[in-house]
Amino acid sequence: MAHRAPRLAALMLCASCGFPGFLGAADAPPHHGPGGFRNNYPHDHDASFWAWKWEQLRHGVPEPPPGGWNIPHMQADAAALRANTTQPTVTWIGHATMLVQASGLNVLTDPVFSERASPFQFVGPKRAQPPGVALADLPNIDAVVISHNHYDHLDRHAIKALDERAQGKTVFLVPLGIKRWLADIGVYNAVELDWWQSHKVGDVEFHFTPVQHWTARA
């Protein structure tokens, strides 16, 4: 990692819903279309989505292994992470949630700490293991990187808790369309980026890059 301007790449996933003001406009970038982003490698989105949902309903995907989800896990040394100011670390908390400590920053990716990846905490996909670090035990977070808005990547409760514990000082780096969603829940320190755009937090430059995916909350 370079000393002056280390770069952490943030994944921005292809959107399937439209964003007002620029998608489909005459001066819009070529990957913008009237209904959302154009995937770099187009495929039949609707067919694959409904095939997946049918398989999920028939077989309860993901099917648990024999004996259930008895997956070994451990808790990270949260006190050591909070005390660390010099050593680069990457701590896997669960799924796409990671704490990256580098170049004086504490960066959290796709923070999900809720029990279920769902709009409701009484139904929906339930996490197989508790987070490797509890949200309350995290060090001060300088930046949160959000890749897309699926419920297993964008956790409303975690976002609000992180913003409140930092008193609005944590910056949220988000794909197009999510800044408005954050504002609707009272989180305003957000920077919205398109493919290949970048933003600096301290001496660290974050780059948003395209990934083949889709995104929607409903």
Features:
17% helix, 24% strand, three-stranded mixed beta sheet, six-stranded mixed beta sheet, Metallo-beta-lactamase, Chain A, globular, disordered N terminus, single chain, alpha/beta, 218 residues
List the helices and strands and how they pair.
Blueprint: E1 7-13, E2 32-33, E3 36-37, H1 45-59, H2 78-83, E4 89-94, E5 97-102, E6 105-109, E7 143-145, H3 156-165, E8 171-175, H4 178-184, E9 190-193, E10 198-201, E11 204-211
Parallel strand pairs: 1-11, 6-7, 7-8, 8-9
Antiparallel strand pairs: 2-3, 4-5, 5-6, 10-11
Structure description:
The protein is an alpha/beta fold and 218 residues long. It has a domain of 146 residues: Ribonuclease Z/Hydroxyacylglutathione hydrolase-like (Metallo-beta-lactamase, Chain A, 4-Layer Sandwich). Helix content is 17%, strand content 24%. The protein has four helices and eleven strands, in the order E-E-E-H-H-E-E-E-E-H-E-H-E-E-E. The longest helix is centred in the first third of the chain and has 15 residues. The N terminus is likely disordered.
